[in-house]
């Protein structure tokens, strides 16, 4: 029996925004991809503005709707988003810019914690799709990549929107179903891009020849 295609999504929208075309392709081939969302848990820090565009509960609901539309299975690890993580009641990351900077001291054990959780999920023969998490990417994307490095499974590093400059262009007929699923993350589309039409335009540009300016994430 062949293994599954397992997509690691740092936040509820990341796998669909970055890999929606690949997810739809797996589903169209008759398999059910698995999307493991890492940082989608509730937090003690109330948060507002850049720290919390929407409640974790709303984001989980949007994720469930998008993955159901694609035909993917979903698993939540329930860890807390970097913007909402605290130590002694104080945020670990002081501002939005800090999320693109070095890993905080309090987060240094996170990759090991996540790797242990993933080891219980990944089966023999599975292939992992892991965010590239390059320099300047959101800290949670980089943490997930570090965690995946501790898993013994074949891996593909996917360009993660909007941090990677662009993805390999997909065929035109594959784009619209991807955009439709991506738009189901309405809270993030509105909070980060202004509206769903602007998100769609950014995704289309990212799939073509133009770079996309990263949103306020």
Kindly summarize this structure in a few lines.
Pfam families: PIG-L (PF02585). By secondary structure, the chain is an alpha/beta fold. The protein has helices spanning 14-28, 56-70, 110-119, 139-148, 172-182, 186-193, 196-206; strands at 5-9, 34-37, 73-76, 86-87, 90-91, 127-131, 155-158.
How does this structure look, described?
The protein is an alpha/beta fold and 217 residues long. It has a single domain (5-206), classed as Rossmann fold (3-Layer(aba) Sandwich), CATH 3.40.50.10320. The chain is 37% helix and 12% strand. The chain has seven helices and seven strands, in the order βαβαβββαβαβααα. The protein has helices at residues 14-28, 56-70, 110-119, 139-148, 172-182, 186-193, 196-206, and strands at residues 5-9, 34-37, 73-76, 86-87, 90-91, 127-131, 155-158. Strands 3-2-1-6-7 form a five-stranded parallel beta sheet, with helices on both faces. A two-stranded antiparallel ribbon has the order 4-5. Strand 1 (5-9), helix 1 (14-28) and strand 2 (34-37) form a beta-alpha-beta unit. Helix 2 packs antiparallel against helix 5, helix 3 crosses helix 4 and helix 6 (186-193) crosses helix 7. The protein is globular and about 50 Å long. The N and C termini lie far apart (40 Å). The model has no long low-confidence stretch (mean pLDDT 92). This is GlcNAc-PI de-N-acetylase. InterPro entries: GlcNAc_PI_deacetylase-related (IPR003737), LmbE-like_dom_sf (IPR024078).
């Amino acid at each position: 029996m062949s293994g599954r295609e397992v997509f690691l999504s740092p936040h509820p929208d990341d796998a669909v925004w970055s890999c929606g075309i690949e997810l739809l392709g797996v589903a169209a081939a008759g398999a059910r991809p698995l999307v493991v969302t890492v940082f989608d848990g509730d937090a003690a820090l109330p948060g507002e503005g850049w720290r919390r565009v929407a409640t974790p509960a709303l984001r989980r609901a949007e994720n469930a709707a998008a993955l159901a539309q694609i035909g993917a299975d979903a698993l939540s690890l329930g860890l807390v988003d970097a913007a909402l993580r605290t130590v002694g009641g104080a945020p670990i990351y002081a501002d939005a810019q800090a999320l693109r900077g070095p890993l905080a001291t309090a987060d240094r054990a996170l990759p090991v914690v996540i790797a242990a959780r993933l080891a219980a999920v990944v089966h023999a023969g599975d292939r992992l799709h892991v965010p590239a998490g390059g320099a300047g990417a959101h800290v949670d994307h980089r943490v997930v990549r570090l965690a995946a490095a501790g898993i013994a499974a074949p891996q593909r590093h996917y360009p993660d929107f909007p941090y990677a400059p662009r993805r390999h262009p997909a065929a035109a007929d594959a784009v619209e179903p991807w955009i439709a699923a991506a738009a189901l993350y309405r809270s993030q589309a509105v909070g980060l891009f202004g509206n769903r039409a602007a998100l769609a335009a950014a995704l289309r540009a990212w799939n073509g020849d133009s770079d996309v300016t990263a949103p306020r994430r």
